[in-house]
Amino acid sequence: MNYSKNNKLIIKTILLSTILLLIFFLIPELAAARPGGGHSYSGGSNGGGGGDGIAGLVIYLLLSLPPEISIPLIIIIIVFYYLSKRKKSQSNVSVASVPTRQNRSNEFYELQSKIEQLKAADPNFSKMLFLDFVTSAYYKYYSLFSKKEFTNLRPFLSQHIYDNAARIAPNSRTISEIVIGNINIVAVFESSAYMAITVDIDANYTLSMGGRNTRYVLTERWLFNRKKGVLSQGPEKMRDLKCPNCGAASNFSDAGQCDYCDTFIVSGEMQWFVNQINILHQETFSTKGLGHYEQEVGTDYPTIVQPSINNYISRFVSNHQLGDWNSYWASFTDNIASAYFLEIYKAWSDLKWERVRHLISDRLYDSYNFWIAAYKQEGKRNKLENINIQRIDMAAVDVDLYYESFTVRIFASCLDYTETTTGNLVGGSKKNPRVFSEYWTFIRRTGVEKKEEEFSMHNCPNCGAPADKMGQAAVCEYCDTKISNGDFSWVLTRIVQDEEYTG
Ligand SMILES: [Zn+2]
Ligand SMILES: [Zn+2]
Q1: Comparing C-alpha atoms, which of 352, 332, 285 is closest to residue 444?
Q2: DSSP classification of residue 154
Q3: pLDDT for residue 85
Q4: Which tens digit of pLDDT belongs to each residue from 397-429?
Q5: How far is CA 163 from CA 254, 272, 285, 423, 436, in A?
Q6: Ligand nearest to the CA of residue 475, numbered in listed order
Q7: Which CATH architecture has domain 101-284?
């Protein structure tokens, strides 16, 4: 009895290994999982995780298969990977797939036009709210992994993703301390029945398994689908995974029935759902790289300007009945873009991140907070002094039913160095200024009419009290109101380096 069960398991393992190895070696693109192709990501230099594709595959197998299958499988794959790598290095073959700037520019125009088509078909679509939905899905998927509450995600996952995760023994693998960095939309496309959006998510988290904790830094590619013709939900249902029918906090049965309204929610009928998860890059987290400086790249690249920017500027001007766009733009760059830039980098240099809590969206705040904690833990700090803003370019304007956003490219120079808390220089220079540029995205709720020049950097934009009691969640203690959604004024939601900006 036991013998035949074991035999079956061995056969299953061998079969699975063969299939996976075939996939892994014969179609290398699949291991890197890049539907759009040509997209590169910059991996850290502090790695310890092994090859990009194989690391992703290993973690995927660990998460999706029972250990008696996944562990022998991983051993086999690693041995083959090692042998194939040795062979490759002997034959001195190298494959470079770094996209040219021309390719990136073509991809950019293609993507922008697909987003415009999506907005035309779904006037309720808001990029900001979609990214909030992605954040919430990512966070819940990993934090509820191998817990019984995972059923609450049923309407937001495809059958195979749900089944894969549900097979994991309860509480055998837990993921915690999830921090999400940037999320980039990399493709928008459609099939006969579904709309699709692919996003790349930069994140890090701690995986606990068998009493061991490992912190990983990852880039994952997630595919979201929704039935064609479905309109986007509003902020309440996009910011959290609420029941797409009644809006109650998600509480679903294994079959996807809402506990509150009794409706069976079929994935994709009313809301986006996750249809594919690929790990593009994964390495163990290390603080060793803090204070390591490399040559600045991309500062001389031309500014990437959204193709339909003039349409959106006109919409913005008419929504706010502005007499003159140029004087508005001057006021925005002075009172918001420049002012935020200086204030936020001052707080960063002083390791006093909480001081700018009310100026920054939740996701951005948490991800930079993670790095500040890492610096503190290493007894280091990164200082930016004598900041001099040289120029601000307009890169993108977006206006939808719920949000307005401005993306600007800020050119600046400053003394940028890292030192220990006792004042020993670790990296950078205290003498030679570093010249750089970054894309900063600011958002605000559509309909907010506060004048930029009346905005005070140090007060709550809702009640006017000092902005000194915002807590971790940016809820002002004086007026008990959440500030970081942009309901009262501009908040910074994204910082992207010029060489990585793709719109
Ligand atoms: Zn419901
Ligand atoms: Zn307040």
Answers
A1: 332
A2: G
A3: 59
A4: 999 999 999 999 999 999 999 999 899 999 999
A5: 10, 18, 29, 53, 47
A6: 2
A7: Roll (3.10)
Question: Which amino acid, residue 111?
Answer: L
Q: Is 389 exposed, middle or buried (0-12, 13-18, 19+ CB in 10 A)?
A: middle
The one-letter amino acid code at 436 reads F
State the chain's maximal CA–CA distance in angstroms.
84
Torsion of the alpha carbons at 406, 116, 199 and 491, rounded to the nearest 10: 20
Which has the closest alpha carbon to 340: 363, 361, 324, 356? 356
Could you identify the residue written with the tokens 């009310």? 358
Tokens of 217: 């830094």
Smallest CA-to-CA distance from 32 within 263, 226, 332, 281 is with: 281
Q: How far is the CA of 240 from the centre of ligand 1 (A)?
A: 14
Residue 339 contacts residue 456 (beta carbons within 8 Å): no
Expressed in angstroms and rounded, the spacing between residue 244 Cα and the centre of ligand 1 is 7
pLDDT, one tens digit per residue, over 277-323 is: 999 999 999 887 788 888 888 898 999 999 999 999 999 999 999 98
Give the pairing of strands 491-497 and 481-482. unpaired
**Nearest ligand, measured from the Cα of 463:** 2
Instruction: Classify 226 in phi/psi space as left (phi over 0), alpha (psi -120 to 50) or beta.
Output: beta
Architecture in CATH for domain 309-497: Roll (3.10)
Ligand showing the shortest atom-to-Cα distance for residue 244: 1
pTM of the model: 0.81
Q: Where in the chain is the domain with CATH 3.10.450.240?
A: 309-497
The ligand placed nearest to the CA atom of residue 241 is 1
Whether the predicted pLDDT of 2 surpasses 80: no
What's the DSSP call for residue 502? -
Least Cα distance to 220 among 439, 41, 440, 20 occurs for 41
CA distance 282 to 362: 24
